[in-house]
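Lab intake sheet, docking and co-folding queue.

SAMPLE TYPE: protein with bound small molecule
LIGAND NAME: 2-acetamido-2-deoxy-beta-D-glucopyranose
LIGAND FORMAT: SMILES
REQUESTED OUTPUT: full 3D complex as structure tokens
PRIORITY: normal
SUBMITTED BY: R.K., bench team

The fields below were copied directly from the construct record.
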Amino acid sequence: MMKVYLSVLLLSLGALVAEAQQKCTGSPRMYNGKPCASTTRYADSRKGACGCGPHDNDNQFPWNSYGLVAAANQNLFDPSGGKWCGPVCGKCFKLTTTGGFVGGHGGATAEGQSKIFMVTNDCPNEWPNLSWCNQQGLHSVNQYGYNVHFDLENGHNQITGMGWDNPEVTWEWANCDEGHGQDGRTPNYGMYKQCQCRHTNTK
Ligand SMILES: *[C@@H]1O[C@H](CO)[C@@H](O)[C@H](O)[C@H]1NC(C)=O
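RESULT FIELD (auto-filled):
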């Protein structure tokens, strides 16, 4: 008898834990009054869709590979579908971890950590990026229910080094220079002027 109760208890605990993985709720998903996004990480030291660096080799242009930079989902990068010099290139956004994550695609990350990142790349709505980056309009969501996604550059373990394992986050636009002041790894606007797409951006 005891065994049966125990397994029922464990099963319900398991269900609770599974439900608690994602903390953002509603449509669009929100947490603490702020819009949510999903995140992943990638390692690609090439210049990306904002042309940050004249060379494809990160030794020639290190900050786009070492810094806190990200690829924004296609609909945020350029809603008209452009894959080069989207209007958000060189803009910065603040991510704050919710403590949640997408089950099977990440792990618990301590809640309330904020970092400022610069958009220097596009996560296109094409294979193999369809499951995270295929949002089509303001209210369209990816396979995991988020209308915004950021793929974070981890070429030098700058993301995993903070203990971030594809965390669910809230996001808001932020000032790059302020981010640079808080954490030297966020590129500032002066650094963005080195990018080929600098003329398309007006902060
Ligand atoms: C997007 O695709 C690239 C390969 O082209 C891969 O490296 C990256 O991890 C993918 N990101 C997402 C969020 O799907």
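REVIEWER NOTE: Residues 2-20 form the longest helix (19 residues).
SIGN-OFF: pending second check by T.M.
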